[in-house]
Amino acid sequence: QKEVEQDPGPLSVPEGAIVSLNCTYSNSAFQYFMWYRQYSRKGPELLMYTYSSGNKEDGRFTAQVDKSSKYISLFIRDSQPSDSATYLCAMRSYNTDKLIFGTGTRLQVFP
Amino acid sequence: DAGVIQSPRHEVTEMGQEVTLRCKPISGHDYLFWYRQTMMRGLELLIYFNNNVPIDDSGMPEDRFSAKMPNASFSTLKIQPSEPRDSAVYFCASSNEGDGSNQPQHFGDGTRLSIL
Question: Which of A14, A59, B64, B70 is the most buried (most CB within 10 A)?
Answer without folding.
Answer: B64
